[in-house]
Amino acid sequence: MSQETLSGFAASASEQFGVPGVAAGVWADSREVYACHGVTSIENPLPVDPDTVFVLGSVTKTFTATAVMRLVADGKIALDAPVRRYVPEFTLKDERAAAAITVLSLLNHTAGLDWRMSAETGEGDDALALYVAKMAESELIAPPGARASYSQMGYNLAGRVIEKVTGLTFERAVASLLFEPLGLSHTFFTTGDVMTRRFAVGHNLRKDGTLAVARQWKDTRANNPGGDAASSVADLLRWARFHLGDGHADTGAQVLPAAVLRHCTAAVSVTRWASAGSCATSTACAPSGTTDQPTASSPTCSSCPNGASPSPRCPTPARTAVWPSTRPSSSGRWSTTWGWPTGTRNRCPTTRHRRRGSPGATQTT
Prior knowledge:
Layout: H1 3-17, E1 21-28, E2 31-38, E3 54-55, H2 60-73, H3 95-100, H4 103-107, H5 127-134, H6 152-166, H7 170-182, H8 191-194, E4 203-205, E5 211-213, H9 224-227, E6 230-231, H10 233-243, H11 258-264, E7 268-270, E8 318-320, E9 334-339
Antiparallel strand pairs: 1-2, 1-9, 3-6, 4-5, 7-8
Helix pairs in contact: 2-6, 2-7, 5-6
């Protein structure tokens, strides 16, 4: 893609949707192309550039999942292990379900947890611990492993797993595991880190059709693992190159073994309406358990570690991934576009989610 083509797209899309500022980047044929248009804020307008920091929303989940996979590679986390192995205080109203939820089910949205939980737990280092404690009041929307349903709660719980395993705050752990070794110098979680850089703010649409700056810039600290990183388009392309590569950083240092990196975007199958005695979900048959996974033509497991027997009644599975991931196109290209659509906050216009609680896969593109 040429610079002229991308710049024209960024400008026209920004004008069409009323976005004050947008940064777009494409990596193709081993070449980066950027296009930036507009300003960071209508009240304090600065030109958007490739290093301008935007709140990422649920793209943050890719950082959380990859941090977990680094700990998996180090032998500190097992994907098929129950969450309680690492967070023994974790509980729900349904005690049996709390004991059954695995780390992998948090990452691929099959834990049965609700979309999100309204809980103000402050901005201290104990924010995630207090958040998990409040999950004791939560009810499931489906049995663990029964279906895929997008869950911010699940990723926040995964953030607490990272804290318990590393002994660090979630933010410090992810910086150490990913941001620093990969050179993501414009990716942060705290407003204190962001405020000294050029950053974009959200805007809301007034009834008279004019824009107003959205005063809440990001969500609470307990929601950092599920949706509150902030980054630049330049850092996101570096992040994309890493995931399309062999696990090495630009410096040559290995951050993840290639096989573990490929596992991050490997499809798994989730049956939508599992019958009694059938393999309800292939999370038990993921690479951490056995290589025998259901496929569209044979949607049952012939040997599930959990002891379930195969059943021809299993429907054709929906396809999902370890996290809702952005995948390269058939041409091998990866692109990211970020802006602030009017009337929304912290949401990328190219992010699409299925209705909460619906069966099937969720994908962020």
